[in-house]
Design goal:
By secondary structure, the chain is an alpha+beta fold. Helix content is 37%, strand content 26%. It has a single domain, classed as Alpha-D-Glucose-1,6-Bisphosphate, Chain A, domain 4 (2-Layer Sandwich).
Length: 193
């Protein structure tokens, strides 16, 4: 099966993919993922605080929106959506800066975007049906620097920031799974149907 990110970023400097199995139907898992409050997880809040502290960032304003809505408010652009199944987002930024600004780059421009001194980042939320009430929830992130100096700065940043970014995925996906499975049970479903 082709990867949805290949149309936007077939070549990349870094790639991270994480997945969990959820005992709930894909449309429910997708809804929970879209609406999940990432900062409701205390360790995620702590990681954001630690990055800001280490880099001397201004205190971030707490957004209390669902995950997708919050990401869009930060500047992430929707590159592709198949409701109940797939969400692809993208932006350009300078992640090595203390106060990162995400610049939305639309789907028609994303693949060719090459403005200097930037890193293009694309990520997914994916819900693949594995049975009537069994879903693989995955998230993949790819990043590509637009020039050699941006690549050097980004890979230096990534060498330490990757730990926090991967940890957030390790916390986020199981938290979505837990909430989706609880909702599915509350609606009368049972696991693995």
């Amino acid at each position: 099966m082709p990867n949805a990110l290949d149309a936007f970023m077939p070549v990349f400097d870094v790639r991270e993919r994480h997945a969990v199995t959820v005992r709930a139907p894909a449309p429910l898992v997708y809804q929970v993922a879209r609406e999940f409050d990432l900062q409701s997880l205390p360790l995620v809040q702590a990681l954001f605080w630690l990055r800001g502290r280490l880099m001397g960032a201004r205190p971030a304003r707490r957004l209390t929106k669902g995950f997708i809505e919050e990401m869009r408010a930060l500047g992430w652009e929707c590159l592709l959506e198949r409701s109940g199944e797939l969400y692809v987002a993208g932006a350009a930024c300078r992640p090595w800066l203390a106060d990162v600004t995400f610049e939305g780059v639309g789907p028609g421009r994303f693949a060719a975007f090459a403005e200097p001194d930037r890193v293009k980042i694309a990520w997914t939320l994916e819900c693949a049906v594995r049975g009537p009430a069994l879903t693989e929830l995955a998230s993949e992130t790819r990043a590509l620097a637009t020039d050699a100096e941006a690549r050097r700065r980004f890979l230096q940043y990534w060498s330490w920031a990757r730990v926090g970014i991967v940890t957030i995925r390790w916390l986020l996906l199981p938290a979505i799974r837990k909430r989706a499975e609880a909702l599915h049970r509350a609606r009368g479903g049972s696991g693995g149907e």
